[in-house]
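Box S2. Input/output pair 1.
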Amino acid sequence: MPRGLVRYQASGHSHFVTFSCYHRQPFFNNAARFELFIRCLEEMRRRFTLCLYAYVVMPEHVHLLLSEPKAAVLAEALHFLKLSFTKRLGAAGSFWQKRYYDRNVRDHREFVVKIGYIHRNPVKRGLVRSPEEWKWSSYRHYALREMGVVEIESEWTARDRERDLTGGAERIFLSQGMNPG
């Protein structure tokens, strides 16, 4: 690790993480690669018992907003994710940059800002006109309550868990497509 770089893990904070493809090349260049990564992301979430709050997979990088793993450090979970994806892909050469950016998210305001940043990233880059058009993010979970391959920890999933535990009634949604941020 470079001198002066300190990672604050085992802090109880959520983490905003970014990692890139090797030399920021757009290696996510077909739907099959995006979908394989999403499956590996869900496998990491389950294996390391962590909460994933938001994600986006871009052509040359990935953003995640997640909790710390229950019985490991975040670096181990990210290593598992990158390695399991690369092995399944069977790509020759380097796919990922070795390092990753990690920022502890210390309060609710910053948490909401990071979710918005993640979900707007494909629009900002000009890949789509609106966030719901980008298939490889958690936006559709928040905006449309769409359940994808990756389980997103949100107010929706927390309320559903509570309902399942208490035997409460199904919730009725008055409006679909509300923008979460």
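Box S3. Input/output pair 2.
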Amino acid sequence: MKQNPSDMKMMMDCMHMREGMQSGQGMQGMSTGRNMPCKDQTAQGVGVVKAIDTAKGTITIHHEAIPSIHWPAMTMTFKADPRSLLKSVKVGEKVGFTLHPNNKDSTVTAIVAQP
């Protein structure tokens, strides 16, 4: 697969940020605010819908491990953006989804039921 050089740079920036956080170096010397290098990162996941809260605009998914962002399998509640995504799936369905990872404030931006 051919990689765009700017995508590769963003991926390397994200890896360096993760390494700094794991080494205890924290965010020293890194940019902050709206221009964080990982702000546009997306990841693909597969899981089972455990709950949908249309009032809060959230979906709870028990997802498999997501290696691209180093997340183990777990159950998490995500914001849905747009909220209309919540109408396309049901509790108990296996789904594939796209998310913008941001720790506990991660957002699902696409979701589709899987057979």
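Caption for Box S3: Helices lie at 5-22. The chain has two domains: 5-35, 43-113.
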